[in-house]
Design goal:
Strand content: 15-25%
Radius of gyration: 18 Å
Shape: globular
Structural class: alpha/beta
Distance between the termini: 15 Å
Order of helices and strands: HHHHEEEEEHEHEEHEHEHH
Number of strands: 10
CATH topology: Aminopeptidase
Strand order of the largest sheet: 1-2-6-3-7-10-8-9
Number of domains: 1
CATH class: Alpha Beta
Helix content: 25-40%
Number of helices: 10
Largest sheet: 8 strands, mixed
CATH superfamily: Zn peptidases
Bound molecules: zinc ion
Length: about 325
């Protein structure tokens, strides 16, 4: 791990010049604020039972995501949007402890074909599961991570109206809250070859701008992405900062959400999220506590990021290939 970081950091100190000839994404971001807020409210309502893995609420959330994709005219990669999988425990059992049994869960994957001939893909990910019901209390997980799911659906809406140059995979992971089960299965059984994945954008907790900051984490490992992020930050409706990808423990988010599997596979990633707040992983992570204007700004910012990355995806892929050969 350490060695990989060093190689990646040294290979791309030069960076990719941000595109200046195209209109800014601010002018072209197209998504419905009302629909976006409505989806956030519904996906984190009590009816979804905290989207516990394998629960009825989880099935309802999945159906809602698929219904929205179909409404937008977006299809699956193959026959089905649903990718059922079985996953084992994340950590080995402690001495004398029985190994935990394998569990079943379901990822949802869709694809927006790019307008170019290229088979390169940008992989946009967000986990839709949360921790369910604990001691009779529903953990609605509005920020964690109904917000990332809804941001991904807004990107879907944007690209459905403004086709991307390169393929966009939209991946809604299950079982993030239980050892990144969905992400681990995705990397082991990818719907398209891993070799074609140029970039992962992972969204996890993007609605609670309590301090007004949205963070982009990961460019420490891929400095070539810095100019692209900064280009978006210059005109983004919310304050977008780079960080939390070096240092210790919870100051380094590199392994703390699903983007970790892309990082470990040598695929460039940027993770977007807010800092932990007092309602993180409590029954109070509710829709009512979200500043809706800030959330919509966050969503618009993430659309700008996706648009910017799509414009330069071939260069990002070249960066990945150069790192492999290093
Ligand atoms: Zn999360």
């Amino acid at each position: 791990m350490t060695r990989v970081k060093t190689i990646l950091s040294s290979a791309f100190a030069i960076g990719i010049a941000a595109c200046t000839t195209q209109p800014t994404a601010t002018e072209t971001a197209s998504f419905s604020p009302e629909t976006t807020i409505g989806l956030l409210q519904t996906l984190s309502s009590d009816e979804m039972e905290g989207r516990g893995i394998g629960s009825e609420g989880s099935a309802k959330a999945r159906a809602m995501i698929i219904d929205r994709l179909e409404t937008l005219g977006i299809g699956p990669v193959g026959e089905s949007f649903e990718y059922p999988f079985t996953y084992g425990p994340f950590r080995p059992p402690a001495e004398g402890e029985e190994p935990a049994p394998d569990k079943d869960a379901i990822n949802v994957i869709a694809k927006i074909p790019g307008s170019s001939e290229s088979d390169l893909a940008m992989v946009v990910t967000a986990h839709y599961d949360h921790v369910g019901i604990i001691d009779g209390e529903i953990y609605n997980g509005t920020d964690d991570n109904a917000s990332g799911v809804v941001a991904t659906l807004a990107i879907a809406e944007h690209f459905a109206a403004n086709p991307p140059a390169y393929d966009v995979l939209l991946v809604f992971f299950d079982a993030e809250e239980d050892g990144f089960g969905g992400a681990r299965d995705f990397i082991e059984n990818p719907p398209v070859p891993l070799e074609t994945m140029a970039l992962n954008l992972n969204f996890d907790m993007v609605s609670r701008g309590d301090n007004g900051l949205l963070w982009a984490s990961g460019t420490h490992h891929w400095p070539g992405l810095v100019p692209l992020v900064d280009d978006v930050a210059a005109t983004a409706p919310v304050t977008l900062r780079r960080g939390f990808d070096t240092g210790n423990n919870r100051d380094d988010w590199t392994l703390l959400s699903d983007h970790r599997v892309f990082f470990q596979s040598g695929i460039p990633h940027i993770y977007f999220g807010v800092e932990d707040h007092p309602d993180y992983h409590t029954p109070r992570d509710d829709f009512e506590l979200v500043d809706q204007d800030w959330f919509l700004g966050s969503v618009e910012t993430l659309i700008m990021v996706a648009e910017t990355m799509d414009e330069d995806l071939d260069e990002i892929f070249a960066m990945r290939q150069a790192a492999l050969q290093d």
